[in-house]
Design goal:
This protein has about 425 residues and is an all-alpha fold. The chain has one domain: Growth Hormone, Chain: A (Up-down Bundle), CATH 1.20.1250.20. It is built from 19 helices and no strands. Helix 12 packs antiparallel against helix 19 (about 395-430) and helix 14 (about 295-315) packs antiparallel against helix 19 (about 395-430). The longest helix is centred in the last third of the chain and has 36 residues, at about 395-430.
Amino acid sequence: MSSPDAREARLPGDPPGGSRAVLVWSVGVAVYFVAVIFRTSLGVAGLDAADRFHVNASALSTFSILQLLVYAGMQIPVGLMVDRLGTKKVLTMGVVLFTAGQLGFAFSPSYGMALASRALLGCGDALTFISVLRLGTRWFPARRGPLVAQLAGLVGMAGNLVSTLVLARLLHSVGWTAAFAGSSLAGVLVLVLLLLFLKDHPEGHEPEPLAHTGAAFVRRQIAASWREPGTRLGLWVHFTTQFPAMVFLLLWGLPFLVEAQGLSRGTAGGLLTLVVVSNMVIGLVFGQIVARHHTARAPIALGTVGVTATMWAATLAYPAEHAPMWLLVTLCVVLGACGPASMIGFDFARPANPPERQGTASGIVNMGGFIASMTTLLAIGVLLDATGDNYQIAFCSVFVLEALGISQILRLRRRAVARERERLVASRVEMVHVPV
């Protein structure tokens, strides 16, 4: 009997992959790489931003909260736009917006203008990842989906690495304006590559045109995606797994390590880098496992949440004033698994939805982690102000959202798996009637 992967490889209309696919997909991933650099640039500049704009912890967290609020709120519209307009047009709009936002942030003279710049950046950033996922499904065979998605996430984390290693040094060597304005040139570069080389799909693999538009069509598209248990399970997997590392890297990791743990900025930056490197290594492992064993998806996601919660509890409850370095190193290595685990959410939504709804379903899933991150960023900022910068209390908000997410994953898991099996049986029946 043929394996499921072999059967999937012979599906009619499956994209061929190959070197051309890698080239085109790499251009899209380069856009996402730059978007992540811009998104996470505040993570290494949080203390500098507080001094530059004379704001407290709550106001500082508003930068990232607003950016993520725009990002999360845009995900379903972006999914619909990608399904309707294609990847190239949406990515082009994204590059223009996030480059303008990064440039505006460089020259912002006031807190209000800086907030507006981060919102513009968040809007452009929101257009990138769903587009890159759609690009992968259009250019690579379906059996490559989990690995291609993990590789996209891995490249995104490499963008985070650039923030922690390169942008942080530029910030302290050439200053705020030069560092942020100089980094915006990367946006111009990927825009040129995008316009020259990116195509929505291979020749002969054009998607079926959507027959309807308008508000009624949008409602049907969203409702049909949401009705699938796999889409909702994907959202909650993304919600529960992504945010601990996102919050740590996006804003509060550096202040926690410097102010609460007494580390130097250099040492703290090294630990942030460790999170990113761990993410990249674990992403490759998770991608290979999930591509070969779909039954491992939920155990990996739940295991990541459990280990992350355990390490946070051990760090925050450590009896001494500062946790030992070995414990902080272990925490950062574990946080590196959060990003790859969140990608599993898309692996639940992908087989649950037909090609014409992939963008919409991915947008719904991608909202999860960013809603959780936004909520936790706000909670930590408010609790820090309320408790006189007590990081132990503030970071306990992580456990509340993890508990909520786990309860929803356990509730939806069986229904999603049962529905996926139904779809697999139906597709095999259809293949019997397809001439080879």
